[in-house]
Amino acid sequence: MRMVDIIYKKREGYELTRDELRFVVEGYTKDQIPDYQVASLLMAIYFKDLSNKEIFYLTEAMMMSGDVIDLSDIDGIKVDKHSTGGVGDTTTLIVGPLVAACGVPVAKMSGRGLGHTGGTIDKLESIRGFQVEMSDKRFIDIVNRVKLSVIGQSADLAPADKKLYALRDVTATVDNIGLIASSIMSKKLAAGTDAILLDVKIGSGAFMKNEEQGLILAQQMVDIGEQAKKNTVAILTDMNQPLGNAVGNSLEVKEAIQTLKNEGPQDLKQLCVYLASNMVLLAEKAKNIEEALEMVNDKLVSGKAFEKFKEFIAAQGGDLSVIDDPSLLPEAKYIYSVKAKADGYIETIKADEIGLAALILGAGRESKHSVIDLSAGLILHGRIGDKILENQPIATLYTNMDMKLEQASSIVNGAFCFSKEQVQLPKLIKAIVSSQGIKNM
Ligand code: URA
Ligand code: CA
Predict the structure, then answer these.
(1) Residue 168 and residue 157: Cα distance in Å, rounded?
(2) Which has more pLDDT, 119 or 26?
(3) Which of 20, 160, 190, 334 could pair with 16 as two cysteines, CB 3.0-4.6 Å apart?
(4) What pLDDT digit, counting tens, does each position of 369-382 carry?
(5) Which of 126, 183, 277, 375 is an active site residue?
(6) Ligand 1, atom 8: nearest CA belongs to which residue?
(7) What ligand has the least distance to the C-alpha of 177?
């Protein structure tokens, strides 16, 4: 097989075979095919698109390029959750305990964050003593005993995707739905769970700017899941403002603790309960969504999910006094209030800009080797629809680098868009896509 023939075939709009896609993915992973040939294939794919079959074969080849995790030593139906690019996405810390409290095993492999804020691993490490590095045996033991464990990604999951994504990033070929769907699903399939729940974000701060595109991506990923014989459900949710109020590692841990005590922001709680209920349904612990919602709500209100969270933190060596007294979490030296420049109703809060401000304050990594400031970030004071007066605080910034305050503050000001008129509130949960079709909410 010759790479040039494969590029030509795709350029002319023909369908590539399973063997051809495997040849490309394997050859590129092993450095046997140069960047320039793969880059030109990616551009041909960008213009001609991939068929459903090609998307599945590409996903499969990328999944097979590294380790495929075997979770069969864990009892019960394992369900994974994935969000497509949320800013300040605290949901895993809340959804994990909610689902585990319902008896569903949660075996989560998580990476460190790159970009705006840390990943789940970074957030958990702001709890003193918490360990994310452990043997697979200990990980599986904890999941069987506690029903919830989070491990740092030591396995080599879908290395082909890592390489291809880096190339897409510099060749303007990221925003193709087939490439995005196969990239996300190759990693989810390699993680070895029985079922997958996808949270597809729609809006100003997300990859998918509108519902129409979001639906196509969701359907594509559900289709891949079905072909791989894994029950897959996608939920379309709003990202015209960040979820919850906190962005930044220890700030988000505090918000997660509040939410698990049923005292957190309404939107964060609503989404977490809905995601958790769908995972409970996928794990066949409830007969229908109504029953699952009731079960999950009960775990929240009764405090059982919060107890489960503590059990999980203790099992991985975390200091529970930090959970009982969140003021023991890392705290920033400088705290600064950002004030509104004019009156108006909040129309959108650009989540990607808020993420950038958090990064500048120290909450994220600019490169793989940057050191993260676990105490840095910001708290938003206002949601879409709120009426704000000039000079009213719209956010509080937290950092250990006072010279960054001015720049971050100006970005936060720019992220808030105001309207003179009253604004309609966005629907948080827009639609649900499964093998049964689309259900609008
Ligand atoms: N997230 C991914 O993992 N891959 C993409 O291609 C886009 C978003
Ligand atoms: Ca948040």
Answers:
(1) 18
(2) 26
(3) 20
(4) 788 999 999 999 99
(5) 183
(6) 180
(7) 1
40: which 2 tokens? 């030109």
125-182 tens-digit pLDDT? 999 999 999 998 999 999 999 999 999 876 688 999 999 999 999 999 999 999 999 9
C-alpha–C-alpha distance, residues 207 and 352, integer Å? 10
Q: Which residues are bridge partners to 79 per DSSP?
A: 195
Active-site annotation holds for 187: yes
Ligand nearest to the CA of 355: 2
Atom nearest to 174 CA in ligand 1: 6
Mutate to test the pocket of ligand 1, among 50, 80, 114, 165 (most ligand atoms within 8 A of CB): 165
- Domains of the chain by start residue, with CATH: 3-48 (1.20.970.10), 79-324 (3.40.1030.10), 332-419 (3.90.1170.30)
**Whether residue 300 has pLDDT greater than 90:** yes
Q: What is the 3-state secondary structure (H, E, C) of 44-64?
A: HHHHHCCCHHHHHHHHHHHHC
Cβ count within 10 A of residue 355: 26
| Nearest residue to 47 (alpha-carbon basis) of 78, 84, 87, 7 | 7
Q: Work out the average pLDDT over 263-285.
A: 96
- Nearest residue (CA) to ligand 1, atom 3: 184
Angle at 401 between CA 399 and CA 405, to 5 degrees: 75
Q: Is 110 a catalytic residue?
A: no
Beta strands in 193-288 (DSSP E): 195-202, 231-238, 246-247
Q: Which residues line ligand 1 at a C-beta cut-off of 6 Å?
A: 84-85, 165, 174, 179-180, 183-184, 207
